[in-house]
């Protein structure tokens, strides 16, 4: 695993799917971020309406896509969310979702940094 404490992405995993193509990495991460943002919003609404099945479905998807791109911190949060009993831990679920939002912002900063190296 090649994830520095300051990097929200496992660079080895990302390099493996991109075969070293930085522009492809950026594109993959941009699609990933957009998808996760949408799913996090869906989960917020699902928690508000106590739709536990929808929360689990979205968490499962985020877990898989995060594993694929090497966003291991977000993957780990999605795993925790999947393992919760939402009827008992609804507030903890909301906290995990907010934590995922913070981590996705780190991925966005990572993308911006990569973009600056491509443009330079």
Brief summary:
The protein is mainly α.
Structural description of this entry:
Residues 21-114 form the HPt domain. It holds the Pfam family Hpt. This is Hpt domain-containing protein. The modification Phosphohistidine is found at residue 60. Helices cover 79% and strands 0% of the residues. With 120 residues, the protein is mainly α. Helix 2 runs antiparallel to helix 3 (52-69), helix 3 (52-69) packs antiparallel against helix 4 and helix 4 packs antiparallel against helix 5. The chain is elongated, with a radius of gyration of 15 Å.
Q: Which descriptors apply to this entry?
A:
120 residues; 5 helices; mainly alpha; HPT_dom_sf; Four Helix Bundle (Hemerythrin (Met), subunit A)
Write the layout of secondary structure elements.
Layout: H1 11-18, H2 22-48, H3 52-69, H4 72-83, H5 90-119
Helix pairs in contact: 2-3, 2-5, 3-4, 4-5
Pfam family, one: Hpt
Organism: Pseudanabaena yagii GIHE-NHR1
Domain HPt: 21-114
Number of domains: 1
* CATH homology group: HPT domain
Can you name the CATH architecture?
Up-down Bundle
Cα distance spanning the termini:
28 Å
Tell me the overall shape.
elongated
Continuous helix count: 5
Radius of gyration in whole Å, from Cα? 15 Å
pLDDT under 50 segments (min length 5)?
none
By helix and strand content, what is the structural category? Answer: mainly alpha
Write down the overall mean pLDDT.
Answer: 91
Could you give a short account of the major beta sheet? none
SSE sequence, one letter per element: HHHHH
CATH class: Mainly Alpha
CATH fold descriptor: Four Helix Bundle (Hemerythrin (Met), subunit A)
Strand content: under 5%
Helix content: over 70%
The tally of strands reads 0
Modified residues (Phosphohistidine): 60
Keywords: Phosphoprotein
Protein name: Hpt domain-containing protein
Domain HPt: 21-114
């Amino acid at each position: 695993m090649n994830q520095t404490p300051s990097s929200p992405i496992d660079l080895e995993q990302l390099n493996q799917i991109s075969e070293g193509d930085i522009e492809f990495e950026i594109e993959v991460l941009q699609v990933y971020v957009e998808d996760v943002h949408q799913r996090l919003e869906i989960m917020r609404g699902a928690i508000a309406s106590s739709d536990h099945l929808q929360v689990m479905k979205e968490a499962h998807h985020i877990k898989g896509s995060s594993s694929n791109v090497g966003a291991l911190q977000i993957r780990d949060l999605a795993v925790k969310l999947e393992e919760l009993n939402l009827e008992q831990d609804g507030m903890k679920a909301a906290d995990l979702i907010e934590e995922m939002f913070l981590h996705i912002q780190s991925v966005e900063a990572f993308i911006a940094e990569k973009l600056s190296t491509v443009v330079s």
